[in-house]
Amino acid sequence: MNFINKLNAAWAANDSLLCVGLDPDMDRLPAQFRGTPDGIFRFCTEIIDATADLACAFKPQIAYFAALGAEGQLERISAYLRHRHPHIPLILDSKRGDIGATAKQYAREAYDRYGADAVTVSPYMGADSVEPYMEWQRGVIVLCRTSNPGGSDLQFLEVNGKPLYQHVAQLVADKWNSNGQCALVVGATFPEEIRAVRAIVGDMPLLIPGIGAQGGDIEATVRAGRTDAGTGMMINSSRAILYAAPQAGEDFAQAARRVAEETRQAINAHR
Amino acid sequence: MNFINKLNAAWAANDSLLCVGLDPDMDRLPAQFRGTPDGIFRFCTEIIDATADLACAFKPQIAYFAALGAEGQLERISAYLRHRHPHIPLILDSKRGDIGATAKQYAREAYDRYGADAVTVSPYMGADSVEPYMEWQRGVIVLCRTSNPGGSDLQFLEVNGKPLYQHVAQLVADKWNSNGQCALVVGATFPEEIRAVRAIVGDMPLLIPGIGAQGGDIEATVRAGRTDAGTGMMINSSRAILYAAPQAGEDFAQAARRVAEETRQAINAHR
Fold it and tell me: Which of B173, B206, B62, B181 lies closest to B131, judged by CA?
C-alpha cells in the first residue's frame, strides 16, 4: 500500500492525527535502558506497543541512532513495527538532501534498509533531489516551513512578494508531486503559515512538529491545518511523550501512553 | 588543528587543490572488492594510499555506506586515514540539515564517530542548523550553489535583486562564520557564480564538485574561484578517479593515481 493510502487508513483506524516521534536520547532514557544499544531497541519498542493504537505514524529521528552507531537497532525497531503494527506508517526523519545517484542511495537506505513508508527530505537542491525517491512508490516529505528560530533565515526571504517557503509549497504541489507521493513539513509554531500552506497544497498531508515540548498551540494548529475531511495532518510529539513524567503507579510506558492519549484527544477536540 | 589550518597545510604540502571523493558504488567496484562490506574498506583505502600525496582532502559520501548498512566500514576507513595520512583532512559529505538537539547528534556522528575534520550541511533550516556544530571547533561546509539541474529551483530565486544562493553566501560570511570554521559548496558548472561567491566571502574555502564525470571546466573554475594566494578551493572529483579506466599495465589504483595526478596538474596550470 502506498504511503498516502496507508496514512489515510491509520487516521481512520485509530481516529488519530498524532505522530509519535522516536528520539532516543541516551541521557534521558529510563535507567534500565541506558548504556547498551539493545536498551534503545527495548525502549523504543515499548513506546511503540504502548501507543500504537493512538498514533497515525511513528517517526524515528535517525540522528539519535547515527550518533551512537546504532543503525542496527533502528533496523530492528523498524522490522518490529512492520511485524507487530503493520498498519501504522513508519516515517524516517533524516532530512536527506542530495541528488541523482547519491539521492538514490539515500532512498535505498530509507525504503529498502529501514522499510520506511516515507522519508523527510530537504528541498534546497531542487527537483532532482526528490525525483530519485519516486521510483519506490512510497512517501517523500519535503521540508517547507520549520519551527525553529533560524527557520526564517531562508524560508522567510521574499521572492516575488511571497516568502520562500510558500514557493516551496507551490513547487511541490505543482511539479514535484506528480505521482501523489509528497507531503510537507510545516512547524506548529506558526499557525497562520500552516493556513497559507494548506491553501496552496489542497489536501496534501502535512507533517507538523512543534507541539508538546516545543510549545506549539494545538487548537490553532489543528484549525489552520485540517482538511475538509478533518484530517490532513501528522502532528508530531516526541520528547513530551517519550520522556513523560510518570504519575503515581505508572511506569514510563504508561506515562507515555497517557500523554499520547491526552494529545490525541486535544487534537481531536478541534478537528 | 582546526579544519581551516589543516586544509591550508595540506594545500601547501601536496601542492594540490584536489579533493578525492569516496563514493564506493558496489556495482562499479573492481570485481575483487564486490559483494562484501570489507571490500569497500579495501577499495577505499587502496584509493587513499594511491592518491594521498596528490590530494588536499578526502570526501566520503555517506549515502553509499548508509544504503548498504556499511557505516562500520566508513568508521574503519576514517580511522585508517587519520592513522596513515593524518595531515589530510577528512570531509564527511552527509549534507545534514536539522536543528538544536538533533543537529548536535549529527555533529557527534561526524566529528566523534567518524573523526571528520569537516561536514557538509544544508542551510535551509537557518542559523540554528549550523550553530550546534561550532562547539567542536572543526569545519562546517554549507551548501550554497549546487551543480545539478534542479539546483536553480530554489537557489536561483531572486531575493532583493539577487539570487538566493548569494544570500546564503552573505549569511555565512557575515553571521554564521563568526568562529572562522565555515566553507561553502559551490558547483563547478557555473564559473561566473563561483566568481560571485568568491567576491562575497573573501578567502573562505570553497568545496567545488562538478569537474570530472560531471563535466565542469577546470580552467574556468580555477580562474573564478582562486584566492590571491592561489588556493581557497577543494575541487572534488569522485567517479572519474575511483573508476578510472586502467591503461596497459595499470591496475585500478594506478589508474586512479594517474587521473588524480592529471587533474591536480590541470588545476595547478591555472592557479
Answer: B181
| Alpha-carbon gap: B99 to the closest alpha carbon of chain A (Å) | 7
B161: DSSP letter: T
CA distance A239 to B248: 60
Q: Beta A233-237 vs A206-208: how paired, if at all?
A: parallel
Residues of chain A numbered 76-135 and touching chain B (CB < 8 Å): 95-103, 105-106, 108-109, 112-113, 122-129, 131
pLDDT in tens, chain A (271 residues): 799 999 999 999 999 999 999 999 999 999 999 989 999 999 999 999 999 999 999 999 999 999 999 999 999 999 999 999 999 999 999 999 999 999 999 999 999 999 999 999 999 999 999 999 999 999 999 999 998 999 999 999 999 999 999 999 999 999 999 999 999 999 998 899 999 999 999 999 999 998 876 667 999 999 999 999 999 999 999 999 999 999 999 999 999 999 999 999 999 999 9
Positive or negative, the CA dihedral B37, B38, B43, B49 is: positive
Highest CATH level, class, for B3-268: alpha beta
Helix (H) or strand (E) holding A10: helix A3-14
Domain boundaries, chain A: 3-147+159-268
Identity of the residue in A23, A109, A158 whose CB atom sits nearest the CB atom of B63? A109
Q: Do A148 and B129 touch (CB under 8 A)?
A: yes
A and B: number of Cβ contacts within 8 A: 172
CATH code assigned to A3-147+159-268: 3.20.20.70
What ipTM was predicted for this assembly?
Answer: 0.96
Work out the minimum CA distance from A233 to partner chain B, whole angstroms.
21
A171 and B153 within 8 Å at the Cβ level: the answer is yes
